[in-house]
Design a protein that fits this description.
alpha/beta; 23% strand; four-stranded parallel sheet; 12 helices; eight-stranded mixed sheet; single chain
Length: 424
């Protein structure tokens, strides 16, 4: 199918420029003014107001299959992602069975091949059973079939085990994407150990449970030369440790989530939609994360999209399952709270959601130019809407952004030249 997108504001890498874009045979065939519509199967006129960017990439999502399809399926999760403008997601290994060997990974990959509407790049686990203890997986046998290795949901608990994993991954030239959490410091906590926690007699999760393992891992990455990516950082100490490690030349990158940049523990309510891991931290942590985004310490914004059933999220802060959904709100929340307020530019946001994830995890695309694969989305920045979970495509409905008034909506998602979502 030949698609012609006329009068769009296209992302050139550092700025937006008005152009027509002709897409044919999965590629961007030509760019420029006044491209003829002759031969085009579909024509979309952006009227100088819609923004065409490389499709978003989320390097941290939970698609729940195999093992937990009552929470989400690969089909529903990727449909939600396509609606939001994502052309690729990286799926985490919190599955049953855990993808710790080729036999188990094949179950997930078969479902992806059958049901995914966008690209899904799975992580394999770091340890057998994704336990964070015991034995490492056979990295060499899995490497060519996964985007990297992660025990997300569990921190690797011993220095020796993580050093062994990093040594192997450094030799293979692959990425470790680490959930950093020291089990011995959790003490049954389930929200941030801050003011709200103390005022309402909850059990808290201390910040050190996150940053202590990041500090250890940065030292190990420096020692081994491993490419090391830190999942969902939430504390001011984490930002500073990673900032200093980067300055020393450590091969470390990191992500945070939209909720950590726009909310803190002052926003907590006695409702499971505010419960995730890591938890919403103190206001000073949120401000440090924003500074990390501004100065480049934080490379990527990923959603940690973590759907659960309504029942699992209905048990308050103490007893609800940890995790909130995020794919269908991420861009609008970030555009509204960070770009519209002047904290960062639109170009910086696109870099963090579209370009940098591809660079870190070696995913094709990220630029709009002739000859490149047409993995794109089209944004209406003027569209205002109210976050209503009942309208989500995702099976998960638990979001802390419920009833927020936001701005910015995806109109069109194109994967290798084919339309996978359309609302224009």
């Amino acid at each position: 199918m030949a698609l012609l997108i006329k009068n769009a504001l296209i992302f050139t890498g550092n700025k937006f420029e008005k152009s027509d874009v002709l897409i044919n045979d999965s590629k961007i065939q030509s760019l420029g003014p006044s491209i003829s519509a002759n031969g085009a199967d579909r024509v979309f006129d952006c009227k100088d107001k819609y923004f065409l960017i490389p499709g978003f990439v989320d390097v941290h999502v939970h698609l729940r299959e195999p093992g937990f399809s009552y929470k989400e399926t690969i089909k529903s999760g990727t449909m939600a992602a396509a609606k939001a403008g994502y052309t690729a997601v990286c799926s985490m290994p919190n599955l049953n069975p855990a993808p710790d060997c080729m036999e188990n990974l094949a179950i997930q990959k078969d479902i992806i091949k059958k049901d995914a509407v966008i690209d899904v790049f799975p992580f394999a686990s770091i340890t057998k059973g994704r336990k964070g203890t015991g034995e490492c997986v056979d990295f060499a046998s899995l490497k060519k079939n996964v985007i990297g290795f992660s025990d997300d949901g569990t921190g690797v608990q011993t220095d020796a085990l993580m050093e062994q994993a990093m040594e192997q991954c450094a030799k293979l030239g692959t990425v470790i994407s680490a959930h950093c959490e020291v089990n011995a410091l959790l003490n049954g906590g389930y929200i941030h150990d801050g003011e709200y926690c103390k005022a309402h007699n909850h059990k808290g999760i201390c910040s050190e449970s996150e940053w202590a393992q990041i500090e250890r891992d940065c030292a190990l990455a420096e020692k081994t030369g491993c490419q090391y990516h830190v999942c969902h950082i939430s504390t001011k100490e984490s930002v500073e440790i990673i900032r200093k490690a980067k300055a020393r030349g450590v091969r470390v990158t990191c992500e945070t989530g939209p909720h950590y940049l726009t909310m803190c523990d002052k926003d907590l309510q006695e409702n499971g939609i505010f419960k995730m891991n890591p938890p919403l931290r103190a206001e000073e942590d949120m401000k440090a994360l924003i500074e990390g985004v501004k100065d480049g310490t934080i490379d990527v914004i990923a959603t940690d999209h973590a759907p659960h059933s309504a029942e699992e999220k209905s048990k308050g802060l103490e007893k609800s399952a940890m995790g909130v959904v995020g794919l269908e709100t991420a861009f609008a929340v970030l555009y509204t709270k960070l770009v519209k307020t002047g904290i960062i530019s639109l170009e910086r946001l696109v870099q963090m959601m579209s370009v940098k994830p591809r660079e870190i995890f070696n995913i094709n695309g990220g630029v709009i130019k002739e000859g490149e694969t047409a993995d794109l989305c089209l944004l209406d920045l003027d569209a205002e809407w109210i976050v209503n979970p009942d309208e989500f495509v995702s099976m998960g409905k638990a979001t802390p952004f419920e009833n927020w008034k936001v701005q910015g909506k995806n109109l069109l998602t194109i994967l290798r030249g084919e339309i996978v979502y359309e609302a224009i």
